[in-house]
Amino acid sequence: MPQKNIRDAINETLKLEMRRDPRVVVIGEDVVGGLGGSSGVEEAAGGTFGVTAGLAAEFGRRRVIDTPITESAIIGMAGGAALTGLRPVAELMFIDFIGVCFDQILNQIAKFRYMFGGKARVPVVIRTMTGAGLGTGPQHSQSLYNMLANVPGIKVVLPSNAYDAKGLLTTAIRDDDPVIFCENKAMYLDACEVPDESYSIPFGQAAITREGSDVTVVALSRMVTLANQVADKLAGEGIRVEVVDPRTISPLDTATILGSVRKTGRLVAVDECNPVCSFASELVSLAACEAYGALRSAPVKVTAPHTPVPAAPDLEQYYVPSLAKIEEAIRSTVGASGSTVRKVG
Amino acid sequence: MNYDPIMLLDAYRRMRAIREFEERMRREVQAGTVPGFVHLYCGEEAIAVGACMHLQDTDYIGSTHRGHGHCIAKGCDIEGLLLEIYCKQGGLCNGKGGSMHMADLNKGMLGANAIVGGAPPIAIGAALTAQVLGNRGVALAFIGDGASNQGTVFESMNMAAVHKLPMIFMYENNGYAEFSGASWHLGGGDITRRAAGFGMPAVKVDGTDFFAVYDAMAEAVRRARDGEGPSSIEAVAMRWYGHFEGDMQTYRKKGEVDELRKTSDPLIKFEERATRDFGLDVEELREIDEELREIIDEAVDVAKAAPKPSAPDLYTDVYGSY
């Protein structure tokens, strides 16, 4: 099976869906790229990181709709187009820019179906980049998906690898509800086996990326990669870590998460959000409320601190949850040495 | 311009329906029967109707918090609207929208919108759909003078201009943004000049004159359907009532509204010209008045008596699937 990175998997999915359904359009800043420039070269960019490269050449500019820098109009236009018969895939370049268009997500798109009495379909996908690690500083590095998971009416997707990115984006585009599709910008070149043909992964179905019986680590987006690495390391010491990747946080596969927590009795929630009202907090709440009797130790959150994302790489490395912090958290739940697993009750 | 007498009768019927509807709502709010905030459209009837007489069900409008008139002008069912305002089962949105969020997509009504400046980005999306599908459809956003200051409106005008969208920006300058006068809150003082700055035709008309709005719309719609891009129309018509029902309007001088009723009632102005120049029969208009009064009386009775939503309805229609 061919190896593909996340950038190419997303690009391929967009092409497959645009070929499949003429109502699918792509809307965003520089999704063509280079319009009006002095070189006269259209499609000079194909998106900031080249994710939409080649779309305009194949589908034309009527369906690959390059826009000015105008996020409220992009998101609102995508919502209005979805209400009236298109299936837009809008790009909010960085999730940080949600600040200038949040009304169109919060008060408009998310609420159309409900406030119109179920008579509206809103098949819009908002692709957006999240995550720190590239030194892009306070306004281009945040992980704000927790805020969106709080909003009824939208679905929130966080792929952690190229295979899932393709299958989840296919589902997102074919879904009749608004979907926020979060792409971690530090992972675009991460590759794995991805089939050429189209396939879909249902929302609300977590993946267990490492099986284990001692402690459950629920991790999101790039944190899944880190959690897997820690799990592999600790396996050598006999600590059996189960890593659960929810893949979508709204809807959330609570059954798989709780099943794992009930099995292991321990939870470490790894999340790049700031800690207060983070998604890690929601996971800990879930375990406390629904699996209290099964817990053998206090759940632990591994998150970013309650600070903005610093630009300085030397500081940023302390901001993002690290392999060491995840390992430390896991060890703390299973006993300081990690060599023996405490059994309670 | 030639005006088809059948079109004119239809226009009168819609304007009169709005007036009857809103005056009745005013009395009902005063009587305490209507839940939530209500914003009335009296004095501005010629704008909604002058615009919507050019639109089909397959054309779309985005509306405002002051949306009853837009809904009626676009052909939404009177009883469905009243059921919705009373938040009852069978309302246009099954009671989940209410006065400020009513929509009827089958009639091309994209929703009243309780976020000032919320609708224009959505309306340009409907214009985009028409452009992508190539179906000669048109979208229009009603935008108050207050909303004209919102960034979303500027962004929408720019996007429409860049992509030559089949879009009409219909500014309703009714003199006040909530409690603040347009003479104060409009930097530069002129919505039309702002719109023209985006490179689109922009005209200002008397919004109490149906014929003026209708004529301006004719050209804007022609341009949109022919792929020539967006247009702006600023229709000036002072609102008769407060920002919301219950607003004491201490910011208005005494007698302002009495004067408006005497000198610039859109219905009186329409009737004078339509009967004088285009042969409409006064008796026939009075029959329409009576008929609409009965329709609205009956619909209000139906709405008041209709069953409320039940508790399980709270949880439905959040998602298509979840």
Walkthrough of the structure:
- The complex is a heterodimer of chains A (345) and B (322).
- Chain A has helices at 6-20, 55-59, 71-83, 102-108, 112-115, 145-149, 162-174, 222-235, 254-264, 279-290, 313-319, 323-334, and strands at residues 3-5, 24-29, 64-67, 87-94, 125-130, 155-157, 179-184, 191-193, 207-210, 215-219, 241-245, 248-250, 267-270, 300-302.
- Chain A has a seven-stranded mixed sheet with strand order 3-2-4-5-7-6-12, sandwiched between helices. A five-stranded mixed sheet of chain A has the order 9-11-10-13-14, sandwiched between helices.
- Chain A is globular.
- Chain A is α/β, with parallel strands linked by helices.
- Helices cover 34% and strands 18% of the residues of chain A.
- Chain B has 322 residues and is α/β, with parallel strands linked by helices.
- The longest helix of chain B has 27 residues, at 5-31.
- In chain B, 46% of the residues lie in helices and 10% in strands.
- The model of chain B has no long low-confidence stretch (mean pLDDT 97).
- Chain B has a single domain (5-306), classed as 3-Layer(aba) Sandwich (Rossmann fold), CATH 3.40.50.970.
- At the A-B interface, helix 3, helix 4 and helix 5 of A face helix 5 and helix 6 of B.
